[in-house]
Amino acid sequence: MHEIGMCEGLVELIQRQAGSRRVASARIRVGARHAVVGDAFDQAFSLAAAGTIVQDAVVDLVITPMTVDCRTCGGQGESADPLTACPHCGDDTVDLSGGDELILESLTFDEEAAGVSRHPR
Length: 121
Prior knowledge:
The protein is an alpha+beta fold. The protein has two helices and six strands, in the order αβαβββββ. α1 crosses α2.
């Protein structure tokens, strides 16, 4: 389950970005070449974040597809499956590009946990 190593690195990055602020949510973009399984990622993130300022964060995981270029028919398309065939002719003689990113897109901080009230007193 390679998601554990990925999530440990992401939690470290998020903690550096957050400083002492508690993290309410994070949006993470992962390319399809990483072959991340959503449920495995969620479980790995929970394990990696346990006991940190990230532990209660809601994670929005966005999978970015790869571009598929067919050497046989010249067709082009997108796929989230690294073992894909041409979406036009079905041939498996394809070149894949993109889908290799791992990006921490955004963080939302829990203002109340940081001592800032969201409601005026």
